[in-house]
Design brief:
Layout: E1 2-4, E2 7-10, H1 29-37, H2 47-66, H3 72-86, H4 105-123, H5 133-137, H6 143-180, E3 185-190, E4 193-199, H7 200-225, E5 227-228, H8 245-257, E6 262-263, H9 267-272, H10 275-284
Parallel strand pairs: 5-6
Antiparallel strand pairs: 1-2, 3-4
Helix pairs in contact: 2-3, 2-6, 2-8, 3-4, 4-6, 6-7, 7-10
């Protein structure tokens, strides 16, 4: 395997052209195939997205255990492994190119395989129980609802943790300057010409007001991103998942992230488009 400072970037075949999973890899055959099939760029999913993906897998495992759908010991091992993904301990094992199959199936399987491998380690061979990437880690899920959900959670978390605090600091700074400059009177400008007098503090009050309203728009975008597709599985029908799965899993995600994560009221629209992300992008711009 060829590597650079960002981790694995290319997987080699052996002399017979066969695909070999590196002995040190936590992922398996599905990830290896994707690494070989999509050697398009050196771009990989960012840390925040991998964290969100781990959170989805953790919440799903806990929910499936509660619903009696997965053996509690297996679920506990998956939870422990998913927490390691959340904590960033295995980022170098997420080797699939950002440009890949449209639904993100390869990255979903990358996560499933990494988590399954670590979960097997925690469970131990003496238990006699096997942990499968699909049958256990991905139980009740599909790439088509997991990847959009992780994408939205990552974006909403970035807004909550980074953008909103920065905008609030900027707003307060502009308001402070507005007061500081209030006694300065200058010539206002319209259409590139001198106009009527205005206080410099009033100009800065306008800047602060723009940021204030920008904050409200970003909060609205955050609310859009908090409506997720999880529970729709392959096409939005929720086939192969428990009716209570999405409600319970999103409640756990809310607790984990501090966001108001909720199941969409219309899974078909949630998986047919990324309108929430488009709206959020518009608010950011």
């Amino acid at each position: 395997m060829k590597t650079n400072s960002d981790g694995p970037t290319r997987v080699e075949r052996d002399s017979m052209g066969e695909m070999n999973v590196p002995s040190s890899a936590l992922y398996g055959a599905s990830t290896q195939r994707a690494a070989l099939n999509f050697p398009i760029s050196t771009l990989r999913y960012p840390r925040r997205f991998i964290k969100a993906l781990g959170q989805v897998k953790l919440g799903a495992a806990e929910t499936n255990a509660e619903l009696g759908l997965i053996d509690p010991e297996i679920a506990a091992a998956i939870v422990k492994a998913a927490q390691e993904v959340i904590d960033g301990k295995h980022d170098t094992h997420f080797v699939v190119d950002t440009f890949q199959t449209g639904s993100g199936t390869s990255t979903n399987m990358n996560a499933n395989e990494v988590i399954a491998t670590r979960a097997r380690h925690f469970l131990g061979e003496s238990s006699g129980k096997k942990i499968h990437p699909n049958d256990h880690v991905n139980f009740g899920q599909s790439s088509n609802d997991v990847i959009p959900t992780a994408t939205y959670i990552a974006a909403a978390s970035a807004i909550k943790e980074d953008l909103l605090p920065a905008l609030e600091l900027l707003r307060k700074s502009l308001e402070k300057k507005s007061k500081e400059f209030w006694n300065i009177v200058k010539t206002g400008r319209t259409h590139l010409q001198d106009a009527t007098p205005i206080r410099l503090g009033q100009e800065f009050l306008g800047y602060a007001g723009q940021i204030e309203r920008g904050i409200e728009r970003v909060k609205a975008a955050q609310a859009e991103l908090s409506e997720v597709a999880l529970g729709g599985t392959a096409v939005g029908t929720g086939i192969n998942t428990h009716p209570e799965f999405a409600k319970r899993a999103t409640a756990k995600l809310s607790k984990m992230t501090g966001l108001d994560i909720r199941e969409t009221s219309n899974h078909f629209q949630a998986q047919a488009s990324l309108d929430n992300a488009v709206a959020a992008s518009g608010a950011l711009k």
